[in-house]
Amino acid sequence: MASHKSAKKRIRTNARKRMVNKIAGSKIKTIVKKAFSASEKEEAEKLYKEAIAILDRSTTKGKINLNTASRKKAALTKHLNSLTAAK
User: Fold this and answer.
1) Residue 78: CATH number of its domain
2) How many domains is the chain partitioned into structurally?
3) What are the pLDDT digits (tens) for 1-51?
4) Residue 18: strand, helix, or coil
5) What is the span of the domain harbouring residue 31?
6) How many CB atoms lie within 10 A of CB 23?
7) Half-sphere exposure of 33 (CA within 13 A, CB side)
């Protein structure tokens, strides 16, 4: 266990950051899954916009890598376009 005051503070801050990152990752996964499971075009478009906003926000805050966000956005776009073409 840490004995220095600064090391104890580092443990506390790391725990806080870990929780915030876990929440952000969970939110990303949830919205992306919802967007992929949508079968109605209108619902899919709404979830698509929300997912893109969350991915962009997470990227600017440094929660996920830019390329990871781009890959997820491309897959979501492809899914939305397939719904549009099918209708």
Assistant:
1) 1.20.58.110
2) 1
3) 888 999 999 999 999 999 999 999 999 999 999 999 998 999 999 999 999
4) helix
5) 5-86
6) 11
7) 6
